[in-house]
Specification:
The chain contains 5 helices and 8 strands; from the N terminus they run βαβααββαβαβββ. The protein is of the alpha/beta class. The protein has an 8-stranded mixed beta sheet with strand order 4-3-2-5-1-6-8-7, with helices on both faces. Strand 7 and strand 8 form a beta hairpin.
Length: 201
């Protein structure tokens, strides 16, 4: 997820910003199986994660990422037919510091720490208060909770030119509007558009 600059220079605040990024179809579906991965998209996403000091995941995304990339990084190869250009992404996410928000998991490894739901707001505010480049998050359920708490500082949508006619969709059921301003627009490949917004506060 990345083509424009997301370096620390883009965020002069001494606090670490929390950046949300997700792949989305024209009609709003965020099912990861509904978009076709490209090399440019994976390189962009790898840079996004590499630029972050830590990743913030819910249980579902954490387990999906672990199942999809942990062994790839350890074996340094793809064995299920995916292209080899996906391997660098596996290495980036494998070594990244991770925080996993879950009340059902009893433990995590893979360079990860657990955060309980009751501690979400206080822990994320503490993480953001530390110096650094920023934090990265993705998914559906956890970002809804983070948006409700006004903890997300950057919303990035990687828009794919596809209509799929189904969900899931992001921020379903949010209790109040979040007004955004467009701060950056860029392109991946020829048809994928990256739109980055910041909340109007």
């Amino acid at each position: 997820m990345m083509s424009g600059s997301t370096s620390a220079d883009s965020y002069p605040s001494p606090m670490r910003p929390l950046r949300y990024s997700i792949n989305i179809t024209i009609d709003g579906c965020v099912d990861h199986t509904s978009v076709t991965p490209t090399e440019a998209m994976h390189r962009y996403s790898a840079k996004l994660l590499a630029d972050a000091d830590a990743l913030l995941f819910g249980r579902v995304i954490y387990e999906m990422m672990e199942a999809g990339w942990r062994e790839v990084a350890r074996n340094d190869e793809i064995t299920d037919g995916r292209p080899e250009w996906m391997v660098p992404f596996a290495h980036v996410i494998d070594r990244a510091k991770k925080y996993v928000v879950s009340d059902s998991l009893t433990s995590v490894d893979w360079n990860a720490e657990l955060i309980r739901r009751d501690d979400l707001e206080s822990t994320v505010r503490e993480l953001k208060a530390q110096p650094g480049n920023g934090l990265a998050t993705g998914g559906v359920t956890l970002p809804l909770a983070l948006a409700e708490l006004d903890l997300i500082d950057s919303y990035e949508f990687i828009v794919h030119p596809r209509i799929v006619g189904h969900g899931p969709r992001i921020f379903e059921g949010i209790s109040q509007h979040v007004d955004l301003r467009l701060v950056e627009r860029s392109e991946l490949d020829t048809d994928i558009v990256v739109l980055r917004y910041e909340p109007v506060r």
